[in-house]
Amino acid sequence: MKGKTFLILLVAAGVLVALAFLRFSDDRHTGDTNMGKKLFSDLPVNQVASITIADTTSSVTLIKGDKTWQVKERSDYPADFGELRDTVVKLSRLKIGRSFTGTDESLTRLSLLAPSAAEEKGRGTQMILKDSSGAVLADVILGQTRQSDGGGSGGQYLKKSDDDTVYLVDGSFRFLKTAPADWLQDEILNIKADAIASVTCYADDAAEPVYSLSRPEKGQKPQMTPIPPDRNVDSTKIDQVFDAMAPLTLDDVVSADEHPQTGDTGSRRLVYQLYDGRQITLLPESDDKDHYWLRVTAETVAVETTDTDAPATSETSENADSDKAPEADAVEDKAAEDKKEADAPVVKTAEQIDADVRPWVFSVKKWQFDSFITQPDGLLEAVEKEGEQASK
After folding, report:
1. Whether residue 224 is found in the same domain as residue 304
2. Per-residue pLDDT tens digits of the chain, which is 392 residues long
C-alpha cells in the first residue's frame, strides 16, 4: 500500500472515530456524584395545586378544589385522586441512574422535545406542577423508556424543561394518560343487588308502570309484573337489571346544562328502591351514533321496615352475650368492632348521591347501557307450546 493511500485511510478512520465520539457523547456521565440521589428531593408535594399533562395529541389539567381534585376540561368533575397521588409521589421519589448533557440529536432521539415544539419527531410528554399561586414547582419532559437487559423496564429518560441535562431515572411514566376522560373518577354508584327491594320502569309521566320487579321478601328472587300469559320470565335478564349498579362506571361525562335530553329512550326511567329508603332513578338515553348516556338522581322515600331489617340494639347484643364474655374480652370485642366500623365503606345518603350525580350526564359503555332494560320484552322469553316441542 502506498504511503499516500495509507495516509488518506488513516485520516478517514480518524474522522469516523470523531463522528462516533460525537454520536455517543451523550452516554458520558456528567453527574456521577448525583447517581442514586432523588431528582426532585425538594418537591413540596403537599403544595401541589394543579397538574398539567400534555403530549402531541391531548392535554389535561387537574386542579385541587375545595373538597376534591377535579378535571378542568370536564367542567371540574372529580378526578381519580388515587392515580393522581401515585403520579406525584412517583415523581418526587425518582432516583438518578445517570445524567449527561443532551444535544439536538440526542434530545430528538430520546423524545425529549416539548410537545409544542415545531419538529414533527422527538416530542415527548410534558408534566407541569404548580402551587396555588401559580408558581411552577416542577416542569419536566418525559421521553423514551429504557429496556433492561432482562426485558423489563430499565427506567426512563427525562429532562427539566429549562435545562438540557438528560437524566435516566429509576421510575417510568410509560402509561401516563393525557386525555381528560381517562382521569375521571369512573365510579358513579356501587349498589349491590341484595340491597335493592324493587325496580320499576315508567314511560313519560305515566303513573302506571311499564313493568315492575320486586322481591316478595328480602333475600328472595325478584318477581315481574305484569307477565303476558304466553311468556316466561328470563331470570338472567332480571338479575342483569339488579346487578347493573355494582358498580356503575362512566366512560365520559358532560355537564347536564350542556347536554339536552335526546334519544328514543329518553322518555323511559328506571326507579331503584333500596331497602334503606334511598331511591335511585336512572334515565337511559341513546342515539343513532352509538352514544349511550345516563342521567341519575336520588332521593329518600319512606319504606316499611320489619324486625328482621332493624339492626340489633346494644341491649339485645349484651343480653345475648351476658353469660359469655369477661370484661377483658369485652374490651377486645369493642376494639375489633371499632376497627370493623372504621374499615367499612362510607354509605352516602340519597341527598349526598343526588348532589354528586344530578349535575351530570354520564357516558357509559354499551354493555352497561344494555343492562338498564326499559322494554318488557327484554325480560321475557316465549313459552314453547306442546305441539312445537313435539315437532322438534
Report:
1. yes
2. 555 554 455 555 554 544 444 444 444 444 456 788 999 999 999 999 999 999 999 999 999 999 999 999 999 999 999 999 999 999 999 999 999 999 999 999 999 999 999 999 999 999 999 999 999 999 999 999 987 766 566 899 999 999 999 999 999 999 999 999 999 999 999 999 999 999 999 998 888 999 999 999 999 999 999 998 889 999 999 999 999 999 999 999 999 999 876 544 458 999 999 999 999 999 999 987 789 999 999 999 987 655 444 433 333 333 344 444 445 455 456 556 665 555 666 789 999 999 999 999 999 999 999 999 999 999 998 776 555 554 55
What is the rounded CA–CA span in Å between residue 233 and residue 235?
A: 6
Total domains, the chain: 2
Cα atoms found within 13 Å of the Cα of residue 54, Cβ hemisphere only: 14
Of 183, 218, 246, the last residue of a domain is 183
Q: Do residues 172 and 221 both lie within one domain?
A: no
- What does the block give as the cell for 252? 365520559
Instruction: Return the ∠ at Cα 85 (arms to 362 and 48), rounded to 5°.
Output: 105
Amino acid in position 296: V
Are residues 166 and 63 located together in one domain of the fold?
yes
Tell whether 275 and 229 lie within a shared domain. Answer: yes
Distances 45 to 42, 86, 147, 180 between C-alpha atoms, Å: 9, 11, 29, 22
* Residue span of the structural domain in which 311 resides: 187-383
Cell readout for 114 is 416539548
d(CA 92, CA 175): 17
In a domain, 391, yes or no: no
248 and 351 in a single domain? The answer is: yes
Are residues 320 and 215 part of one domain? yes
C-alpha cell at 159: 429532562
Cell numbers at 316, concatenated: 339485645
Q: Is residue 251 part of a domain?
A: yes
- Same domain (yes/no): 124, 269: no
Instruction: Note whether residue 123 is domain-resident.
Output: yes
Name beta bridge partners: 211.
201
**CA 174-247-340 angle, 5° bins:** 95
Q: Could you tell me which residues come within 8 angstroms of residue 259 by beta carbon, excluding any fewer than 6 positions away?
A: 293, 361
Does residue 122 lie within any of the structural domains?
yes
Same domain, yes or no, for 233 and 175? no
